[in-house]
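Annotated sample (chain length 387).
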Amino acid sequence: MKRIFLIVLDSCGIGELPDAAAFGDHGVNTLRSCAASGDLHIPNLLKLGLGNIDGVDYLPKEEAPTGAVARLAERSMGKDTTIGHWEIAGIVSADPLPTYPNGFPEEVLEPFRKATGRGILANAPWSGTEVIEEFGEEHMRTGDLIVYTSADSVFQIAAHEEVVPLEQLYEYCKIARKQLHGKHGVGRVIARPFVGEPGSFRRTANRHDYSLEPPAKTLLDAVAGAGMASVGVGKIYDIFAGEGITEHVYNQSNAHGMAHADSYVNQEFTGLCFVNLVDFDMLYGHRRDIPGYTQALNDFDAWLGSFLPKLGEEDLLMITADHGCDPGYLATTDHTREYVPLVMAGKGVRSVNLGTRSSFADIAATAAELLGVELETPGESFAKEIM
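Output written by the structure step:
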């Protein structure tokens, strides 16, 4: 195998895990909510076998699928972006990252106030759009930072771009990242810039994530360490704190990320191209926007039809997700604890249904074997079954 294109449809879960209730989720299923809208049109994914995956009884089956498929369970104790991507890359996290359902304690906030010289607003779990509507005007008047969290392990800082210039906001995030370690080592510190006036605030595409460094070597480290290209597209660089990445580009949208994938498939390289498409989660999942999420899947599928013919003889495409974020689940606006799909295509791929696998890390184990690199991971390779 020469090249692997690993694309994460951020938050596209396919049904609740057996332990979902322990994470506060009941009856969740991101893809089913989109299918139930009646507007889902994904012929290319269905032809590859998406509807044949275990438990996906809400999509039509394909009698002669052209791809290999599996349902993956998350073994890590979480349902967030960082832990999900780490597991895809080979790390299983036995302990959850810290979360703050009641806001951050003073032992976290006081050093941050002192280092930035600014006050703090909000300090509670909030929807990102609602928190700026609630506190944006006061922020503009006082210069205090809007600090909030969610059900995930995140420390988010929202600021108006005309009040706190982007580079200053990014510097505040770097300060928080250095301070948040040990028992307060949140998965991500996130810059959430916005613009506009009271009553019409809107977040911009200048978001930036500052993640914990992975606690062990990942697939990206293994690929880069073998002298191959390890390309991160979208927020992959941020999720892995830059570790094991030889080249990266950011996305402004799903369409931008897909264009980057098109660019890389037309380039000569050996190794891994790891792509995150975040709009599913950020724009539609958290906002519980079923029509938007459904249309984003339709758009991806239409693009997929043009991408598949570009794969070379020694290329493999792997499409998966990192968690769920069911747009039809109205109990919260947070991520949902779900199985994720794995759909694979390539000229050397056998049509096979791998059933239900016990870990996202099986992706890393398989990719490492196919690329011929050494990786210690609890994941189990299925390379010989699909090729």
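Annotation: The first strand starts at residue 3 and ends at 9.
Annotation: Residues 290-307 form the longest helix (18 residues).
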